[in-house]
Specification:
two-stranded antiparallel sheet; mainly alpha; 78% helix; 2 strands
């Protein structure tokens, strides 16, 4: 009797343990989607693609890139080591390229994705949303005062990166033209969304060919540069512990009261006004179209003119604050929900694996590392002269070589200095936009 009771208790305990594991499994989320729900969605998309019934329109394309983007992005963000170097972005960009090379995707899947990314120009829409929404959403105080404060370190760091990169590139047999436009510029261009994509459009407009050809050549440099920047940031954090005099513990400027001015709080509106967001979408489209019109007048590619006009409008405070909030709200939606999926589309259609493999070599990686390290060192020494803490100044300058907002988070996290985000955004967004504009103007001259 006692044995049977013990057996029953053990069985009940075992069943309870199984139920707990099942509950934990059901509660596990891919992104924000519970695992069982995501599994059903993925199965539906897979079966429809495998059987040839996937719609060859925007809905079918979005289903493909969203499903894969959510999954691969989460894997990259949760994998040890990989998560410390912007793994979500890297995995979403490179793994689809590998799968296409291996012939994993059927024609239906590729056709639906191609229709979305190329024929419907979803890529252009995402680019415009990221660039215009991010610039209009910046604090004007940070835009103006941050640029004044960061101008010298950013300028000197950029010049150091360019000249050292060109010198090392020459040692490895790269031409000045190739080193500058296809290695240095993508590293300091502001990331994938705000840098590589507008650059690919500008390059294709000036040199001819399709944007995907240039994405495949530009993206590897940006990825390598981001990894080196994270390593530099981690090293600077360890150096700060050994040399307290160089360390601001997250404060960039030696005067604490001036530092506090840059800690701008979020706007009071906690809810999302969907009508304002809709107006923001219209505003973003208008900026993109205006850039195209101005291209016909001044001859500068439309995406670059779009950036210039957005910065000018923000500086002059032309637009009502409510519309800026609407555009920025949509930017937040796009940056939170569509970056990884768009990278899936880029990897599938715009990053042929054979082209990526061709650009990689020891010399290529050394040139990329030289660009980032020289920029970081310049920020370190110039920051000290500008009454900034050298460690923090170097980290912020280093963010100029990060993969956009994702890169900034990874770089600052490696140094445990997230309080530097306002300055990092200046370094990445404005520094990146300036790089895109200047590189485009120079390319028109030397093409």
């Amino acid at each position: 009797m006692t044995d049977s009771c013990n057996h029953a208790l053990k069985q009940q305990s075992g069943d309870s343990s199984v139920r707990q594991k099942l509950r934990a499994l059901c509660a596990y989320e891919i992104g924000v989607i519970p695992l069982p729900v995501f599994a059903v969605i993925a199965l539906i998309v897979f079966l429809s693609a495998h059987l040839g019934y996937l719609p060859k329109n925007m809905i079918g394309g979005l289903a493909v890139i969203m499903t894969m983007g959510v999954f691969f992005g989460q894997v990259g963000q949760r994998t040890p080591i990989l998560k410390e170097i912007g793994g979500g972005a890297i995995l979403c960009l490179m793994l689809p390229s590998v799968l296409v090379f291996l012939g994993v995707f059927g024609g239906t899947t590729l056709d639906a994705t191609r229709m979305l990314m190329k024929e419907a120009n979803f890529l252009y829409f995402v680019i415009a949303s990221l660039v215009v929404g991010s610039i209009l959403g910046m604090s004007r105080f940070i835009l103006v005062q941050g640029m004044i404060r960061m101008f010298v370190p950013l300028l000197v760091g950029t010049l150091a990166a360019v000249f050292s990169g060109l010198a090392v590139g020459a040692l490895f047999g790269y031409s000045v033209y190739h080193t500058f436009f296809f290695i240095i510029v993508p590293i300091i261009g502001g990331g994938i969304g705000e840098g590589i994509l507008p650059l690919s459009l500008a390059y294709s407009a000036i040199l001819g060919g399709s944007p995907e050809t240039y994405v495949a050549q530009l993206a590897p440099a940006a990825v390598v540069g981001n990894i080196v920047a994270i390593i530099c940031s981690g090293y600077l954090a360890r150096l700060a512990l050994k040399r307290p005099a160089l360390n601001g513990d997250g404060m960039l400027i030696r005067a604490r009261e001036e530092n506090d001015l840059f800690q701008v709080k979020e706007d009071a509106n906690k809810g999302i006004d969907l009508q304002l967001m809709g107006a923001g979408v219209l505003l973003i489209c208008a900026f993109f179209i205006l850039g195209g019109l101005l291209e016909k007048v001044v001859g500068i590619p439309g995406p670059v003119m779009m950036i210039l006009v957005a910065v000018l409008f923000k500086y002059l405070q032309v637009l009502p604050k409510r519309l800026e909030i609407g555009a920025n709200s949509f930017y937040k939606l796009v940056s939170a929900a569509f970056i990884w999926p768009v990278m899936i589309g880029l990897g599938m259609l715009y990053v042929p694996l054979d082209s990526v493999v061709k650009v990689f070599s020891v010399g290529y990686v050394v040139v990329c590392a030289t660009v980032v390290v020289s920029m970081t060192l310049a920020g370190f020494f110039i920051g000290n002269l500008m009454k900034m803490f050298p460690i923090e100044s170097a980290i912020v300058t280093c963010c100029h070589s990060g993969l956009g907002g994702t890169g900034d988070v990874a770089i600052l996290s490696a140094a445990n200095r997230m309080s530097l985000m306002p300055f990092a955004q200046i370094s990445t967004r404005i520094g990146g936009a300036s790089t895109v504009i200047l590189a485009t103007l120079l390319l028109k001259v030397f093409a």
